[in-house]
Amino acid sequence: MPDAVQSTPRLRSRAAVISGAVLLGIVIGMTAANVWPVVLLNLGVPAAVAVEVLFLSAYIYWVSGGGPPRRWQAVRAEFFRVRVIAPGEWAWGLIAALSFAATVHASIVLLFRFEPFPAVAFHRGYDFSFIPSGSLKWLACVFSAISAGVCEETGFRGYMQRPLERHVGTTSAVLISSLFFMLIHLSKGWALLGMVPIVLGAGLLLGLMARASASLVFCMIGHTVMDIGLFAYWWTQIAGEFRQKPLSQSGFDFPFLLECAAFVLFLSLTLLGIRRLASMRVS
């Protein structure tokens, strides 16, 4: 009985830490990420880009420890994982980041070789027809990706995962941040059942990358590159249309073998890059 009584305050304290970190991460990340859609719809591309550059500059300055309140500057810098990245880390960090983006796209291709691609669901909510030219549509895609990459990584892998690492351990922290990353994105029109493990897996890889590198830089790069492809290809189709037939129609063909090989290759490179980053931090 005494052990049970003593464990109750610890459980309550841990629950408070987890809920506080989750709430903080969602507020810091998703509130900022939704500034871009508002300015894009109300100002148009050129003016929206200018406003977003100013906003993201001020946002990064503050979440990384700048500005008031001064007593929370060190905490904000820690949550943002501020540190100087050594020259030797950049190569493996970029390999991990770019391979991560390719892994996600390869996994989506594989998903839609097993079931038909639901183009209508993927396009819902991503209508760029109000943008007058192709170049401006590309610019909108790029800044949509930058906004999501910077803000969501700050929220989920920074302000949510970093305090959790201190209080519940790395494994639990990565799992929790990845779970809520997935849940937040289930509100999207493209959130089919088959996309759930892909989004969860993306969150896990980004969480491991943040922990291994002790930085958000490579997560932001990987997330941004991934989202450029998502916006331009899967969601708006300004980069082309997915025309591969599911295996039920095409049969077990050679392109499917190449797609499987690409997924395995890019996932292996991502994990190798994360492992190398972690070893550099230890050494």
> Judging from the principal axes of the Cα atoms, what is the shape?
globular
What helical percentage do the residues reach?
over 70%
**What count of helical segments does DSSP give?**
12
Cα gyration radius (Å): 20 Å
Characterize the main sheet: none
List the uncertain runs: none
Number of strands: 0
- Helix and strand sequence: HHHHHHHHHHHH
Report strand %: under 5%
Alpha-beta classification: mainly alpha
Number of separate domains: 1
Instruction: Give the overall average pLDDT.
Output: 94
Q: CA-to-CA gap between the ends?
A: 45 Å
Account of the 3D structure:
Helix 7 (about 135-170) crosses helix 9 (about 195-215) and helix 9 (about 195-215) runs antiparallel to helix 10. It contains 12 helices and no strands. The chain starts with a helix and ends with a helix. The protein is mainly α and about 280 residues long. The protein has helices at about 1-35, 35-45, 45-65, 75-80, 85-115, 120-125, 135-170, 170-185, 195-215, 215-235, 245-250, 255-280. The chain has one domain.
